[in-house]
Amino acid sequence: MKRVRVGKLVRDKIADLIEESGDRSTTQILSKKEYVRELKRKAIEEAKELSNAKTPTEVVMELADLKEVLSALSKTAGISEREITKIQRSRRTSRGGFEKRLYLESVTLTDQSTWRSYYKIRARPKRKINS
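Above: the chain's sequence. Below: its structure in token form.
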């Protein structure tokens, strides 16, 4: 027998499925703070898996997994699907969606541009001139 350290949030029935297969698992119940942290990590994991999905079947499976994690995260935060949809529509109205498939290659920003913070661009420090 070989013990493998997993260390990640899993779906509710995974430990039971492992036991039913004849293997053993060790679990713990996370605190709310730990749960939120692990849900965020899981969202990143699922997004990476979605990024690596190659077939339509893999894409839909990973989208479903990501949606499950996001649903759990919003429920834990006390945010309803209705509220998320409202904000989503508002942002689509003010910023647009992704239907046009626009890929922003570059921007040329003035020093006073309000977009500097969005793109995390700091003003260049003034160079000291050595005399």
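The mean pLDDT is 92.
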